[in-house]
Each structure stands twice: as structure tokens, then as C-alpha cells.
Write a structure and sequence with these properties.
By secondary structure, this protein is mostly helical. The chain has helices spanning 3-11, 17-49, 57-68, 77-107.
């Protein structure tokens, strides 16, 4: 960020607090949407490693597709969204508010 951008952010740090938290929640929901299927495969692979010897990602993915279809890769999606959305809202929203609130203090040259 340039010095001018920092000064503009510091001038009204609380102006967009709600928007910052909403953006954090949206980023979490996008994250879940694009990565949940990977997590499903990983979890099932871990659970079945002990039971089924020789199972790998490809064979497990093919079995999920054959038995459950596309929906099988998104089993548990809603519950994961319910947890990740608020978590990311708090994390990214708070980080952004603290960053912009303290930006003037950290980046301003100290008086000499």
C-alpha cells in the first residue's frame, strides 16, 4: 500500500467494518466450495487405509463417483460451511480492522 492509501484507510478505519467481516465470510464459503471434495477424499482415504489395503486416491474417487455420484464428494458440505464461514469472517475481518486501525501508528515516521 502506498502512503496515501494508508492515510485514506486510517482516516475512516471503522467506515467499512461490516463489509470487511462479510468479505471474510464470503472468502471462507468460496474456500469450502472449491476444496471440500479434496477434504472428503482425504478423510475417507484415512478412514479406509486401515480396512482396505492397496486403496489409493484414484480408486477411492472412482468408487465414490460410482456409488454416490457428484453429491458424494460434497457430503458434509453444509456443516463445513456453517463452521468455516463464521471462522473466516472473524479471522479476516478482525485482521483487516486491526491492520487498518494500526496502519497509521506502524507506518508513520516517528517524530524526531
Amino acid at each position: 500500500m502506498s502512503e496515501q492509501e494508508v492515510q485514506e484507510e486510517v482516516a475512516q478505519p471503522q467506515a467499512r467494518v461490516g463489509q470487511r467481516y462479510l468479505n471474510g465470510a464470503i472468502s471462507g464459503l468460496i474456500e469450502v466450495t472449491f476444496t471440500h471434495w479434496i477434504d472428503v477424499i482425504k478423510t475417507r482415504l484415512q478412514a479406509e487405509k486401515e480396512i482396505t489395503k492397496g486403496i489409493n486416491v484414484t480408486s477411492l474417487s472412482q468408487r465414490i463417483w460410482a456409488e454416490e455420484g457428484f453429491r458424494g464428494f460434497y457430503r458434509g458440505y453444509i456443516s463445513r460451511m456453517a463452521g468455516i464461514g463464521p471462522m473466516r469472517a472473524i479471522f479476516w475481518g478482525t485482521m483487516d480492522v486491526v491492520r487498518t486501525t494500526n496502519a497509521g501508528n506502524v507506518l508513520s515516521p516517528s517524530p524526531s
